Amino acid sequence: MPIDGELRRATDAAADLINPIDASASDAPGRAMYGVYCAPCHGMSGKGDGPVAKYYPSAGDLTRSDVQQRSDGWLYLVIVDGTEKMPSYAHELTRTERWQVVRFVRTLASPVP
Length: 113
Prior knowledge:
This protein is mostly helical and 113 residues long. The protein is 35% helix and 0% strand.
């Protein structure tokens, strides 16, 4: 089913999706959306320690290198489609808001030692 004119998840499509939000843009809009839709499970730190996480199977740690190494398109499609443990936010967030969340998630990367 198309969402905002986009075809829904085809794993191959993730590589073709490019975040239109410049990496130097403020992360404030994405932080705000993340705070509402993602932080309850993932926590503001992204470590999966949000206030409702204890009531559900483990929320993913978004700071992990295997998550951060995924493409922006992959993260975007997870937001659109959800996962086995996470609902889809295709109808709650606009296309731009989804990309802003992806931009913010990139700021959660664990520092490299």
